[in-house]
Design a protein that fits this description.
Layout (H helix, E strand, L loop, with lengths): L1 H13 L3 E4 L4 E5 L9 E12 L1 E15 L2 E5 L11 E3 L4 E3 L6 E2 L5 E3 L8 E7 L2 E8 L7
Bound molecules: FE2/S2 (inorganic) cluster (FES).
């Protein structure tokens, strides 16, 4: 009977579950599919671990191609209380419908209660592939 409890406990202690973590980098899109200066929402799948469970989840990023070799990728969540915002093509601004925050194409707050600019993914380009890393908040801290 004691062995029935001791073996799982020993396995747990020797191989603790991994903390919830998303992978560092994921291929999210193709640079040639982005239009210069035109925000586009990219949808991709991330695989993360939660304990011993590995789960794939849908993720998005608002991407702005600023040159042939540069892309900015914003987290899709408003920095006020985390609602999803969208790009308004006529106003040329990101608008959050929840409490009215407004962000410029560079992610800076133009109006509303949002306390800071939009958070950004780390971005790297390999040939034409757009790779997104962790989301960085104020001061470059990982979120
Ligand atoms: S969550 Fe966006 S303005 Fe409040």
């Amino acid at each position: 009977m004691g062995l029935a409890f001791a073996v799982p406990a020993a396995i747990y202690l020797c191989f603790p579950p991994r903390s919830r973590k998303t992978p560092d980098w994921v291929q999210a899109g193709d640079l040639t599919q982005l239009d210069l200066g035109q925000p586009q929402q990219l949808t991709f799948r991330r695989t993360g671990t939660d304990g011993w469970k590995i789960a794939a989840e849908k993720a998005t990023a608002w991407c702005v191609k600023t040159s042939d070799r540069d892309v900015i990728a914003f987290s899709p969540w408003c920095t006020h209380l985390g609602c999803a915002y969208h790009w308004d093509e006529q106003k040329k601004q990101f608008l959050c419908p929840c409490h009215g925050s407004v962000f410029g194409i560079d992610g800076k707050v133009l109006a509303g209660p949002a306390p800071r600019s939009l958070d950004r993914y780390e971005v790297k380009l390999e040939n034409n592939a757009v790779w997104l890393g962790p989301v960085r908040g104020p001061g470059g801290t990982a979120l």
